[in-house]
Amino acid sequence: MRHRRGHKLEEYAEYLYERCPGLSTVNKIHADLRYIKGIISGKRINHDLPCTEGAGKLCQIWGDLTLWNEFLWLVDAQLLEVTPGVLGVVCLHGEVSAPVYDNILRRHACMLLHWLVKEHRCVKVLELEGTVIPRSHHLFCDALRVSSGLRRLKLRRYYFEDTVSKAIVGAIGSLAMLEELDISKLNLSMDAVIDLASLLTDMKSLRSFSFCDISLVESTAQIFFESLG
């Protein structure tokens, strides 16, 4: 039986409400996703369009990169072709100047990023710098846990509370298909560092790991490298 148009978005709003404490109400999440328009084109994202990548075929989203970026720029990110035939969300490295009331739009952009990572297996690269995660680490962690295609993850310039850093590391460990992990200029708790060392040995698909400018006390660094064996 076919669902009515928009039913999937209603289910998704309920899903985010349950998984991401403090994000907003179900009705507000649903309304934002359904009605907020791009600031240039005045168009909305069509959430009824699925990922269509497969058998040498590009996803339909390739035709809407400009529209998606009308939203993502508010969190200093853009959706683009990072290598031939491969899509990724990467940092703009720019200053985002917007009125305070646009915090609603930034939250919406974070939800769209979650949608991309969850619903689009064609999005294989995620590179963020100091953005998105501070707005809702629950949203970011869940995006990693339900990722359908991420192969490369790069995180830079984040300063987490201990519980948040542990949650982030745990979510990274759930990326079964991750091939490249690059983290730098992060502060991680001792528990998070120990967890990271443990999960690195279990991530069978991982073939490249970069770890630099991390705030660690000497004893924690020793534990990390000893855990790597």
From TrEMBL:
SUPFAM superfamilies according to UniProt: RNI-like
InterPro entries: LRR_dom_sf
Record protein name field: Uncharacterized protein
Provenance organism: Ixodes scapularis
Gene from which the chain derives: 8024062
